[in-house]
Amino acid sequence: MSSFKKILLLITNLGQGGAQRVFHDHSVFLSEYYNVDEAVFDKEEAENLFDSGNKLFSLDVKGNGSILTRILNFFRRCRRLNKLIQKEQSHICISHMDGANWVNVLSLSPAKKILVVHGTILHDRNQSKGMQWLRTKLIIPFLYNRAEVTVAVSEGIKHELQHTCGVQNVVAIPNYFDLEKIEELASAALPPQWQSLFINQDILITSGRFNEQKKQRYLFPLLRKLKNKNRKVKLVLLGDGELRSALFEEAVRLQLSCYCAWDASQPFSEDYDVYFAGYANNPFQFLRHSKLFLFPSGWEGFPMALCEAMISGVPVLTADCPTGPRQILAPGTFDSEYTLQKAEQTSCGWLMPMTNKNSFTAEWIQVIERMLEDSNLRNEMTRSARHRMDQYSKEKVISQWKELIDSLLL
Prior knowledge:
Distance between the termini: 9 Å
Number of helices: 15
Shape: globular
Strand order of the largest sheet: 10-11-9-8-12-13-15-14
Oligomer: single chain
Radius of gyration: 22 Å
Helix content: 40-55%
């Protein structure tokens, strides 16, 4: 399809987050085939951590304020998006995340509309019950059926949109990964102060923003029980976030000693139990040198951290949470209720009970101990996981997006 075709990518903001990373990746690879612009609700509120180099427009409408102000601002965004699309003569507007998707549809612009859904509709605990009902029964059925296509980043989200929300034209296209780049970064040597720790200890690692969704606090009781069994294990947490203090306090409450990378006065040593490593410029090298990757998340869309661990070469244990882990580790199986009670071994890793299940602690401890003792099983799972990740290569996912976009440009 001719490269002069114009595509506008819309997102609420360009701050930290998985959706923002995917938005950036899409902007970069689509610009190889089309004329791509970007737009955010308000540039002053956008951190723009992922600069693609493409032209960035702002609708210049701030958030927050009273309910009335928010409603008025919502419709201002719709009007300004319509004007922007007509001025730039954009053929397609691809929006990411709920707020941007709603504005995209209600802008009533002449552009064809693709809505990208990154998170579970039914299992997001950050949404009140009232808002959940409003979204699933009214907003999403009304709006999303007025777009040309809705793209779900996982089969689980696609199932929710179709069977709970009644959205008709839904396709599932996963996020992609630059496999060679991640492997190259993973092969790098660890920073000097970390090397002996990873050599001398069995490192359990997790990564992700410190928030309620990721459930990192449930890893501390696991570590406490393992240490009570005289296991020579350490826990490394890559990331940061609003629960930083709460997680630290929970670890201390369980009498676990903690190293915090953000405390410049604290000396580094191998004597701590928990290592809050912060955001690493190269998280993949930490993953590669760990014994196990633990992912106790309560809900996901398409868990990029899980995939990155599998690419980096560390065996994974993941909660069988909505909506991505089962699709990744056990393709072809599906449980819309997410009822797993016992650990389920796959060739690529372990699907585990979620943290709200009665069997959570016992099952996770049993599997962790088995994996620490069985290097052959760790190696087998690592090889299978890496092979599985070929399905999420940049080339394969881009081809799906190009096919979809080109079909709308005919």
